[in-house]
Amino acid sequence: MSETLIPVQEINLPGFTIPDPPNEADLLRCVHCGLCLNHCPTYRLTSRETESPRGRIFLIKELAEGKQQVNDLFQEHIGLCLDCRNCETVCPSGVRYSVLLEAARGEIVRTGKLSTTEKFIRWAILKQLFPYPRRLDLVAGATGLYQRTLQPIVRESGILKLFGRLGELEALLPSRKLRRYVPPKPKKPVAEVQGALRTPTRPPRPRVSRGRVALFTGCLMRAGFANIHEATVRVLEQNHYEVIVPEGQTCCAALHVHAGERDMARQMAKYNIDLFLKEQWDAIVINAAGCGAQLKEYAELLRADPVYFHRAKEFAKRVKDVSELLAPTIAPNAAFPSKTRVTYQDACHLAHAQKIRLEPRQIIKQIGNVELIEMRASDRCCGSAGIYNVIHPEISDQLIDEKLVNTADTRAEIVVTGNIGCLLQLEYGKKRAGWSGRVLHLVELLDEAYRQVGSV
Ligand code: SF4
Ligand code: SF4
């Protein structure tokens, strides 16, 4: 990430019209060595240079220099990238690929030709739905109701085949029934509770000693995946953190940045920064890899803003993935009743963007009776990548099918991951492959293990 503010006027890249084009150093860092090619999922599947990191960087540099137009082919090659950032991990030159890609997508939104349908979908989903929690609640609530009532009948009837692609999209709906997360009311101080009860039914919990943390609840996670947030809070409390859920949060804007909607993303980033910097937190905790990476990179998004660049850096210092916070001091009293084989799928935005690989594994290894079996290519993208699985099902399905082969080969009973997108994609892949294991978020695994020994 840029360490200093980059004044927009010093950047002279004639091909970019967005207010925050990539800087020249980033454009020149690629030395064309090709070491990234076989680590790139889209290159591995297509064997085409234009679907590789090196090829895409070349196209973006040509655009910056005014030698390449934002035409259909450019849009196709840039659009087919998963933004998984595996190329960043393996690049010996330290290429910051995602800043180039996301700027190119911003340029496509500004000067490219988007179809009317795509424009409408972007407007409806990215601008009218995700930034507004109440609207998202309505959609998630209606989806949850459909899952509980009509879904079994509709799927059984075979009627979905009549709806073509729309019917196929229904198969991507989560296996989990959507349920909104409602934060618990703030707890009364222990002394007050004891005074109200003549004989306390259970001894007071030990005093909070590790710190006061704010939980970032996000958009979809808050609207539909209450069980993961509830498990996160229990696990943090078990590890002696006081957890507060600040009211009025909005989506982290990761989807917007990946889609090139940078102006909207900046508004949302500023809103979240202002909200969370109102109070002093020991940490801002996040349990979704994609959102965590975005929160930590707000300064990149706001680097042309003299005020918010510095505020974003302040904010980012406090953001911690839940595994990053817990691993160094994890409470040891977690165990499964019998030997359980577990494998771990690295979320791209944990492993490649945040460089968090060891911490989730340390936590899994701390759980009694759990054996961690590594799968092949655990850090290769599962094909979820935001809404990539909806837009590019052919590539996405190949990636998740390969992931399920690698998962099944470990003979694990549980596959664990740290991102909601990966989790849903693994559940989708599980159905396709007929695999019988369970898919859990890391905090769900830990919560279950604490419950097994009666800790929570
Ligand atoms: S992105 Fe990095 S690894 Fe790939 S060709 Fe360029 S310098 Fe080499
Ligand atoms: S982000 Fe992923 S898909 Fe895109 S070029 Fe890099 S490795 Fe390939």
Secondary structure layout:
Layout: H1 24-28, H2 41-46, H3 53-64, H4 72-79, H5 86-90, H6 97-111, H7 116-127, H8 133-148, H9 151-157, H10 165-170, H11 190-196, E1 211-215, H12 220-224, H13 226-238, E2 241-244, H14 254-258, H15 262-276, E3 283-286, H16 289-296, H17 298-301, H18 308-318, E4 319-321, H19 322-326, E5 335-344, H20 348-351, H21 358-366, E6 368-372, H22 388-391, H23 393-409, E7 414-417, H24 420-433, E8 438-441, H25 442-452
Parallel strand pairs: 1-2, 1-3, 3-4, 5-6, 5-7, 7-8
One iron/sulfur cluster (SF4) binds near residues 53, 85 and 97.
Describe the protein's architecture and organization.
By secondary structure, the chain is an alpha/beta fold. Among the domains are: 104 residues, Fumarate Reductase Iron-sulfur Protein, Chain B, domain 2 (Orthogonal Bundle), CATH 1.10.1060.10; 55 residues, no CATH class; 121 residues, Rossmann fold (3-Layer(aba) Sandwich), CATH 3.40.50. The chain is built from 25 helices and eight strands. The protein has a four-stranded parallel β-sheet with strand order 2-1-3-4. Strands 6-5-7-8 form a four-stranded parallel β-sheet, sandwiched between helices. Helix 3 packs across helix 6, helix 13 packs across helix 25 and helix 23 crosses helix 24. The chain is globular. 43% of the residues are buried. About 3% of the residues have low confidence. One iron/sulfur cluster binds next to helix 2, helix 3 and helix 5.
